[in-house]
Amino acid sequence: MAESVPRRSHPRRKPISSWPIHAVLIVAAVIMVVPFVWQILSVFKTTSEVTRIPPTIIPADFSVHSFETFFSTVPFWSMFAVSTGSLVLRVVGQVTVAALAGYAFARMPFRGSNVLFGLFIAMLMVPSQLFLIGQYQLIRDLRLLDTLPALAIPGLFSAFGTFLMRQAFLNMPKDYEEAARLDGANPFQVFWHVMLPMARPMLAALTVLTGLYSWNDLLWPLIVSPSGENRPLPVGLAGLQGQFGTDYPTLMAGALVCSIPLVIVFLVLQRQFFAGIANSGLKG
Amino acid sequence: MTNVAAKPARRPSGRRAGGNQTSVWWAVAFIAPATIGLVALYVWPFLSTLIKSFQDVPAFGPATFVGVDNYTALLSDGEVWEAFGNSALYTVIVLLGIPLAVVLAALIEQAGRGRTIYRVLFFLPVVTLPVAIGMVWRFIYNGDFGLLNYVLSWFGIDGQYWVADARFTIYAFAVVGIWMGLGINLIILGAGLQAIPKAVYEASALDGAGRIRQFFRITVPLLTPSIFFVTILTVIAALQMFDLIFIMLRSVNNTALGDSKTIVYLFYEKAFVQFDQGYGAAIAIVLLIAIMIATALQFRLQKSWVFYG
């Protein structure tokens, strides 16, 4: 299957007539970003100003009251630490476990390994809700409710990740591996020093997808943090809304502050994000 | 797409370098962590959900086997039917976002230097917390002072209580769903577009085909494998919609919640709010069956419209 990393050079066919294309795209892009612009404008309004009819566009007196309320009622930094910590745990764990298994499934077949891989594929097709009750019980029985590991543990293992890594290793040439083996490297050394570096695009793809999923997930953290301790950002933000249901500037400020970290990461690493999604989507 | 998965590992069994006991142990060591995790956190939970769906599981105390009682109760439960209806309606509307994504992907592909900027802008909702998105749209949809009703008033259209009025909530959610999913669809479709050989366009341009004609005669047919893939992903994700309803309705005690539950929301409520896990498990099993049928149906239908060149 062809590499699907976006290519740079692209011969334009008829450069003359590109303005209608841009006109349509600009209108669409404006519609896409209007909610964000509205959110940011509202952050600087007072609670009474946002309920005015008709609405004001530009804030009347640039109040930063919303940020003050947000930061004084919500433990943002602890939520941020929980979100980041569970993301790192989950990404590092999943990528490691999946790469090891994916490599063995691709390159070290043994009797029954295809049957075992079939079990991974079967789980890949089951929607995640089917696992929640059992995962919750396990976490509860291990007395891990309301802890950071609870957030990350199920995500350390992924049928999807294993599948992606197996695909990546299947598509690699065998020569390097055999050369290393003739030089006396053991299977782990071959994996670690020779094959893993070549799998970097897929490792990046899996990191992006797992990280995105971990950062955004609401349902699982909601279930395993019943007391509200060690809440990641989505759960804390949902709680803010329960508390300040009509204080829209504060809600918009919270939504903005909690979303900004990942947006910044995306803006810095956009090429990896796009390549990650394109790679995982079209490889299989 | 996923047919590659079924292919066994292709390794000539003839010259298996060190094909002895040692190498099997290495393989087992590599695979063990993933397999133990899979069994403990996926296979066993799946089986336990299946078993629980045939049990009455009180919040405290031992579970009792009740046969298919949960399933018969579910079939006569209006709330379950309504939730399935809501999820199906939401899914169908969100699918309308796919033609939109195809057109936009084709336009972005032609946009030359601005391509990256467009891609970044369309992708922003994907990297924004869904919870935050729900909050922002709830504000925009507000019936009294929301932005949407204000914009509609410019055109003389009467505003509505988009999320508080159960007649509109699913449609309102679906618009957000399309908006949220567009960025990912554009990237996948964009990769598909770049795989189309430029020579095909050049040949048809020599034949005098215009851009619109090229779009329908070349781009869309050659893009159908990617469109199919995006459709599968969209349907699976849409049938599992949960975040928006939790944020826009539940956390603010919106009265429209009663009539707007989706299937995964209902599952969450039964299994983790009311702790009726037997009934919750049965709902989850029915969701699995629904997703399997929807996916199988799409694989069957693809033969009539997906073009594998």
From TrEMBL, chain A:
CDD domains per the UniProt record, alphabetical: TM_PBP2
Keyword Amino-acid biosynthesis (UniProt): no
Entry membrane topology: Multi-pass membrane protein
InterPro entries listed in its UniProt record: MetI-like, MetI-like_sf
SUPFAM superfamilies in UniProt: MetI-like
GO biological process: transmembrane transport
GO terms for cellular component: plasma membrane
Keyword presence, DNA-binding: no
Domain ABC transmembrane type-1: 80-269
Transmembrane segments: 21-41, 76-103, 115-136, 148-169, 190-215, 250-269
Keywords assigned: Cell membrane, Membrane, Transmembrane, Transmembrane helix, Transport
Compartment(s) where it occurs, according to its Swiss-Prot or TrEMBL record: Cell membrane
Family: Belongs to the binding-protein-dependent transport system permease family.
Protein known as: Sugar ABC transporter permease
Native organism: Acrocarpospora phusangensis
